[in-house]
Write a structure and sequence with these properties.
The complex is a heterodimer of chains A (138) and B (356). Chain A has 138 residues and is mostly helical. Chain A has five helices and three strands, in the order αααββαβα. Classes of the chains: A mainly alpha (138), B mainly alpha (356).
């Protein structure tokens, strides 16, 4: 089970997109051992307007990410969490540590990609290079 | 049970006590090397690499070789002679060496699993880029860059060493990198290269040439293996490994400029390569940009004043590492295996104390 880490996020959202994190939070905090998409939808609709298909797609993505297991129940699926919240966060911490030297083993890159949050810093660096080029006439 | 005591307990002791001890010693020495000298980030790159990798590979090699040496017929360890008599063949050290080897392989499996390379693209855009790159690693483009910079040493003769070593790929978001353990090849992303001028591309290839010349993919893989095999490798040595890797990139930038690459186009190419695609941006974790800023700052400074070669940075790190590894393998055969004898008797005594 591998996840990419998200910039500027903490806890669940470090590895999951916002709605994914919200759904897992609902599942874990309410102790849902076995649930259908409609169960999560009912909880979320108390907090905000959200479509059934949106929740269904996100739950399916969580299954693809191996955070949920599912069994068929007639025409629908019943989902259950594969990890506890603690197990998930513990594995996140391990990936953060391993991530520091994971990439160099595979390839020597010109530079590692930076995160979305660093886009402004990249803009500033590009502006600095352009300015220096103008100053030096290159 | 006592026959299995030494192979299992001995191997566990080496992995759980000897390797962490060596990692701790290496960390202390790394702190000294990193603080010492006036070269800053780029100081003592070879020594730091030897400490990072040697602290795991050298003790493993010594114990593995000592185990095999003792298993040879007629060379049984004192502990074996006491247990089995002079005529008996002692296989315990051999099993110890195998157990050690198995543990090392299991621990290094995640690193070895991620060894697949990038496939070459065949599309029209890829073919056009191949032709463009052939022009750049040939004489014409490189000389043009050198003349524009007013430099006496152009990149063309050096970049010519990349002929036959460039792979064009269309993997989404891939920029530029070097892969291949013994025959390194430079992988160029089509979309990335299309956004660069020839000047930028030539300078970026100059950076990758250093990775090729110094067999960096092999070095990086050995470093990852060493950290994976040592149970406390990541915990203790990760910060030093990250610093070394950053320093390595900065070293390649400087070497590229020393060999004729243009600093500002190289800086431009680096910043463009660092920018993630929309999909990558959503997936990437928090990344510290301080190393990137340091490299760009260094290249901006090089644009004002060309760097001077302060010291020889020949590719000595890897040959010395291999020589030390051979020495560790040969040493038990020449200088005795007393430490393994002590481990052998100690393992059996420990088992005797635990299971009277």
């Amino acid at each position: 089970m591998t996840f990419r880490l998200r910039s500027g996020k903490k806890g669940l959202e470090l590895r999951l997109h916002d709605l994914e994190a919200t759904i897992m939070d609902v599942v874990w905090s309410r102790g849902l051992a076995s649930f259908a998409v409609s169960d999560v939808l009912a909880v979320l609709q108390k907090q905000r307007e959200i479509a059934y298909t949106t929740v269904m797609t996100t739950v399916a993505r969580l299954h693809d990410k191996q955070l949920l297991r599912r069994v068929r129940d007639g025409k629908r699926y019943l989902y259950s969490p594969k990890l506890t919240r603690e197990e998930f966060l513990a594995s996140t911490a391990r990936e953060v540590l391993e991530g520091a030297v994971g990439a160099p083993g595979a390839m020597a890159m010109l530079v590692e990609k930076v995160s979305e949050a660093s886009a402004r810093e990249l803009d500033e660096l590009e502006a600095l290079i352009r300015r220096r080029r103008r100053e030096l006439g290159k | 049970m006592s026959e299995a005591a030494f192979p299992l307990l001995g191997a566990a002791f080496v992995v759980l006590a000897v390797l962490p001890g060596c990692a701790l010693l290496a960390k202390a020495l790394l702190v000294l090397v990193e603080r010492g000298g006036g070269g800053g980030l780029l100081h003592g790159l070879n020594a730091r690499y030897l400490l990072l990798t040697g602290s795991t590979f050298l003790p493993l090699a010594w114990f593995f070789s000592a185990g095999l040496h003792q298993a040879e017929s007629g060379r049984s360890a004192i502990a074996c002679l006491l247990d089995h008599g002079a005529a008996a063949l002692c296989l315990e050290p051999g099993f110890f060496a195998l157990a050690l080897c198995a543990i090392a392989l299991i621990r290094s499996a995640p690193v070895l699993r991620g060894a697949s390379g990038l496939a070459a693209a065949k599309s029209g855009a890829a073919q056009a880029l191949v032709q463009r790159l052939e022009g750049i690693v040939g004489q014409e483009v490189g000389q043009g860059v050198a003349q524009a910079a007013g430099r006496t040493v152009g990149p063309a003769p050096e970049l010519a060493r990349l002929r036959g070593r460039i792979v064009v790929t269309e993997v989404e978001g891939f920029a530029l990198g070097t892969q291949g353990w013994l025959w390194p090849r430079v992988c160029v992303g089509v979309a990335f290269a299309e956004a660069l001028t020839d000047e930028m591309l030539a300078s970026a290839l100059g950076h990758e040439l250093e990775h090729v010349r110094l067999l960096d993919p092999l070095r990086f893989r050995l470093l990852a293996l060493a950290l994976a095999m040592n149970p406390v490798g990541r915990r203790l040595l990760d910060p030093h490994a990250s610093t070394w890797l950053s320093a390595r990139e900065a070293h390649c930038d400087r070497e590229a400029v020393l060999r004729g690459a243009q600093p500002l186009p190289l800086a431009d190419a680096i910043v463009r390569a660092a920018r993630p695609t929309a999909r990558q941006a959503a997936a990437l974790g928090a990344r510290d940009t301080s190393v990137l800023e340091l490299r760009i700052g260094m290249l901006l400074a090089f644009a004002e004043r060309a760097p001077r070669r302060c010291c020889r940075h020949e590719p000595t790190g890897l040959p010395v590492a291999v020589a030390l590894l051979l020495l560790a393998l040969l040493l038990p055969h020449q200088a005795g295996t007393g430490a393994l004898d002590a481990l052998h008797t100690g393992s059996e005594q420990a088992l005797g104390a635990l299971l009277p």
